[in-house]
Write a structure and sequence with these properties.
By secondary structure, the protein is an alpha+beta fold. Helix content is 32%, strand content 29%. The protein contains eleven helices and 26 strands.
Length: 544
């Protein structure tokens, strides 16, 4: 106890430290959380200030897309990421929520396009091969102008060209799509100059509108005289020079394509604006025939078969193409019970020129009715003829027939009715049918009985003639022949007895002449009796 107290006493004697207070001073310990707070605020502000817009994109399917991993790229540079993928309320499509960098906000307009980049093979080209290993990503074509937007509908098929590609768009009108597709190449002088970027049915429902994009600098060669044609497949031509095979390229032969060119001397033709419309011709031969806009339609009525006649078949006059067949129908008249086949043709009036008349096109447009009326009065008619004996295809041939039945063009119908004549085969068939009809009207049974009676009479006459001929051969003719033979023997004996220069011979010569004449008369008599044996009974007068 004593020891403990001693220590306490000693401790009490030790000096104590008295803290010295300094008013207004903050402890350094509080600086650490303050600095952390400031750093957090700065980082939050920086993140907020650099944060880009959040958008929503709809697609039909989310195939190959993963939330948190699928990137949004422009020119292969990452500008965003897909944050969330969910189904639409009606489950008809998917909705992607994506975050973009701040700089992309200025290009999010109503014209901005999004699509999924995957490995694809289309129009002879392979694209998106890099996605085989890295996975699909979303491509963007920034908009230029228009209202700002944050909701977009993604493209199911990637666009062929983007807005920043230099060049111009044009429209092509065609009767059908053929083998063309999005991405089909467009060639100029066999150099790929563009692609097909859109396709749709025209408003009239009778044709197809194709959108093509021609890259710079080839777009400057498109002017008002430019001609576009379908260069798909192979083009075979058989003429006097042999067989020619033409194709624009191997790609057009396999997947289709378009080509265009300018006629010689037309490089200075006026330029055209973007989205100018052109005709897409069926093939190269179609453009070489030229463009004919002054056409008139006519109706041709045929009663026979039109097998082998197709839409587009040529209409020719003296071997020169004046137009083509545009429609083939069948028409039934319930009153007359007749079936007719109306064939509509288009005659291109500007293919016709008139000698000595200036401005022929204007004259024909104004007076084409009078012109065709005059030609019909001269015998102009339409007839079906075989254009190709190998395929059996028909064409409409216009020609002059001087013996044609007079008629006129019916201008009062919806379309003028042009007169026709039957084909040569129809004419032969009609002639045979007419002959058969006439034969049916003849009394053939009565004529047959009369013919049998005549034949029986002729048979009896022949029997009588044969009997008379036998009697002549057995009685008269042998006697005459024996007399002649004996006379010839006697004359031969007398001639041998007489000398050459004796008077007797001379006298005998005269006698021989007389006998010769007599013999000739006898021969003539024998010939006559042989031909007219009844002369022995009735005499010569009655026999004749």
């Amino acid at each position: 106890m004593s020891e403990r107290r001693l220590e306490d006493i000693e401790l009490d004697k030790l000096p104590e430290a008295v803290p010295e207070e300094k008013p207004g001073r903050i402890s350094i310990v509080w600086l650490i959380p303050l600095v952390a707070l400031l750093i957090g605020v700065w980082l939050g502000y920086k993140a907020w200030s650099e944060m880009g817009p959040t958008i929503k994109i709809t697609f039909k399917s989310a195939e190959g897309l993963v939330a948190g991993k699928t990137k949004i790229k422009y020119k292969n540079v990452e500008i965003g990421i897909v944050d969330e993928i969910e189904l639409s309320p009606d489950m008809s499509h998917v909705v992607l929520t994506a975050s973009l960098v701040k700089s992309a906000g200025a290009y999010l307009t109503a014209t901005t396009r999004f699509w999924v980049v995957r490995a694809r093979v289309a129009a002879g080209e392979v694209s998106g091969l890099e996605t085989v290993l890295s996975g699909a990503y979303i491509g963007i074509d920034p908009g230029a102008g228009g209202a700002m937007a944050k909701h977009f509908t993604g493209l199911e098929i990637p666009p062929v060209v983007t807005k920043n590609l230099p060049g111009r768009h044009f429209h092509l009108r065609s009767d059908d799509l053929g083998s063309l597709d999005l991405g089909s190449p467009v060639y100029y002088q066999k150099i790929k100059a563009g692609s097909v970027v859109s396709q749709k049915l025209a408003d009239d429902g009778q044709s197809v509108m194709l959108g093509v994009f021609i890259n710079a600098p080839y777009d400057k060669f498109v002017n008002q005289d430019s001609k576009f044609w379908n260069a798909s497949g192979l083009d075979f031509t058989l003429d006097a020079n042999g067989i020619k095979v033409y194709t624009e390229s191997f790609v057009t032969m396999m997947v289709g394509g378009i080509a265009f060119k300018n006629p010689r001397g037309s490089m200075q033709a006026p330029a055209v604006d973007e989205w100018q419309e052109f005709i897409l011709y069926e093939d190269y031969n179609a453009i070489t025939e030229g463009t004919h806009l002054q056409s008139s339609s006519y109706i041709l009525y045929f009663t026979g078969s039109v097998r082998g006649l197709r839409i587009g078949a040529p209409v020719e006059l003296k071997g020169i193409k004046l137009g083509q067949v545009s429609e083939i129908m069948m028409e039934y008249n319930p009153d007359t019970k007749n079936v007719k086949i109306p064939v509509t043709i288009e005659v291109q009036m500007d293919r016709i020129t008139l000698n000595g008349i200036p401005d022929t096109g204007t004259f024909i447009r104004t007076h084409h009715e009078e012109l065709f009326d005059e030609l019909v009065r001269q015998g102009l008619r339409a007839q079906l003829q075989t254009g190709n004996y190998v395929t059996g295809q028909l064409l409409v041939d216009l020609d002059f027939y001087q013996d044609a039945t007079p008629t006129e063009i019916d201008w009062e119908s919806n379309l003028p009715v042009f007169p026709t004549i039957p084909t040569p085969l129809e004419e032969i068939s009609n002639t045979i049918f007419s002959i058969v009809k006439r034969l049916e009207k003849l009394p053939l049974e009565k004529m047959s009985e009369q013919l049998h009676q005549a034949i029986d009479s002729m048979t009896e006459i022949m029997k009588q003639t044969e009997l008379l001929t036998k009697n002549l051969n057995t009685t008269i003719t042998p006697a005459v022949i024996a007399t002649l033979e004996q006379t010839e023997k006697t004359l031969a004996t007398v001639e041998n007895v007489l000398e050459d220069e004796s008077p007797v011979k001379q006298d005998l010569g005269r006698v021989m002449d007389e006998l010769s004449k007599a013999l000739r008369s006898i021969r003539l008599l024998a010939d006559y009796l042989e031909q007219n044996p009844d002369a022995l009974i009735y005499g010569k007068g009655e026999a004749n």
